[in-house]
Amino acid sequence: LSATIGRQRTPDHMVATDTIDDLPVDEQRALLAHELGHLRLGHVATLERAGTLQRVAATMVGAITVVIADTDGSQDPRAYGVFRVATFLAAMVIMSMMGRWRQGFERAADQHALTLTRDPEAFKRMVLSITRANRSPVAGFGASNACGLIAPAERLESADRWAAAQTPPAPGGAPRVD
């Protein structure tokens, strides 16, 4: 169970989902508000540009490696293997560097969903629903990766912090104690 927002060769944006209809309406609302957050905050276009830069940078690293490996000009076919390995390694390094960036995007989209829906309990249930669904080996995601790069426990705590920040102070300005 997942959802993503992106472009498909048109300026229109789409949300691709797996079995979103299986979620209750309030969880669907939280999920769509999260994806809308990515769109409103410019994450879709930024990630598309970053992906292009990643491919270009990895190819450049691979090409430079071939030039260095083939210093005698013999055009050794093993240089192509070196190119492939260097390109792969460069892509992995760049992806790991982008991981924190993407985590920040996920956190910002979570905050957008909480602010838009004002329903932290529905948001938390949505996170748990997606986490449970993604524990299946068929889904291809581990529980710590459900909902995009952030551990579910961290996302639940974030929703609790958001809810606590929304609690109005008690009359007289003293903090409210429940």
Percent range of helical residues = 55-70%
Largest sheet: 2 strands, antiparallel
Strand content: 5-15%
**Low-pLDDT windows of residues:** 136-148
What is the end-to-end distance? 36 Å
Which structural class matches the secondary elements?
mainly alpha
Kindly report the oligomeric state of this protein.
single chain
Q: Strand order of the main beta sheet, please?
A: 1-2
> Care to count the β-strands?
2
Top keywords for this entry?
178 residues, mainly alpha, 6% strand, elongated
Could you give a quick summary of the protein structure above?
This protein is mainly alpha-helical.
Describe this structure in words.
- This protein has 178 residues and is mainly α.
- The chain is built from five helices and two strands, in the order ββααααα.
- It has a two-stranded antiparallel ribbon.
- The longest helix is centred in the middle third of the chain and has 40 residues, at 78-117.
Topology:
Elements: E1 3-7, E2 13-17, H1 25-40, H2 43-69, H3 78-117, H4 120-134, H5 152-166
Antiparallel strand pairs: 1-2
